[in-house]
Structure of histidine kinase:
Amino acid sequence: MELPGLLPGSLLGEGTGRRSGRDWVVDLIAFWAAVGVGLAVFVGSPDLHEKPRWFLALDLVGGIALCLALWWRRAYPTQIAWAAALLGAFSAMSAGAALVALFSVAVHRRAGVCLPIAGVGLALTVPYEFLRGGDELPWPVTLVIVALLLLVVVGWGMLVRARRQLVVSLRDRAGRAEAEQQLRVEQARQTERARIAREMHDVLAHRISLVSLHAGALEYRADASPDDVARSAAVIRQSAHEALQDLREILGVLRTYDSTDDASPDDQVARPVPTLADVPRLVEESRAAGMRVDLGGLPVDVPVPAGSGRTAYRVVQEGLTNARKHAAGARVTVTLSGGPGAGLSVDVRNARPVGPPPAPADAIPGAGQGLAGLAERVGVAGGRLAYGYDGPTWRLTAWVPWPGPGPGPGPVA
């Protein structure tokens, strides 16, 4: 956890427990610069030969100790800077170390911590002048010079701090942007997987219901002719083959997504999807399975947008599958209508089933989620879906957009 006004240790070299190569170079330069400046000020003091030996020894010991303390300036910048400010009241040897310590505080701490230390250091220049100063410059002039020097050091340190804060901010924003991009890619993959799962449900439910219908006919029609048995067996074989082929294609797409981590779903090659032009083939398959299906209304070869045509195909497919499951033997009517600007409407109707429901062993299994998934698919396409009994008739009605001139979308009955 970072404290207020403290930059992350990765940038400032604190909290890591060890110095980097750059830290060693900077610390060596800071140490020897502090020692050099301190010796120059100490040797150049006008009262060097006038003070008692114990006073000069105290000056040297205090200044050297402060220079050595600079090796821990990253971990304890405030404490070292306060010690340097207090030693500045009498120690000439501590002058260089005091400037380095003040610079470190300006870099590692906020201005509210740094400025009071600089102010105390400036105030203690007055007793230093009376203890160690000479007659070369009046003490007010010396005070102004020291103030300007402290201002430069603090300003430089705060500039370095601001630059490092900017680097931290940019790194943080770059990290968040990368994480958000990965999240968007993962969401796109999950959306694509959900779409593939819906495709699997729609396709396999249709194929397997055909297989179940023909198998049931073979089971209960003991008097069927060899030709009828052969036709039903051919339909079962063809439907099972197509179901396996569809399943193989879908699983192949999923494996492609798993093995291509750096590619988004938009970059994958999608399997061919049916459109409105495939509705007659769908109807013929149902008729071959023994269903009575009437197809009318809009010609299926009109240039309908691919998305709208695909959604309409899925509506017809789900309607026929549900009719096979829940109203076996009932006549099904499929009506397509609409046009550019008015939208594309699909209406699938069948009579209410007569007689008791089939036994659980004879019923075609289902997950019960087909209409819910279909409503989501139609909603994503910008359309509407309605279903339910209209008197003795079950109706599944959908409307999907069809861009172009004309009136706006009409209500779904």
About this structure: The longest strand covers residues 331-339. DSSP finds twelve helices and five strands in the chain. The chain has a mean pLDDT of 77. The two ends are 61 Å apart (CA to CA).
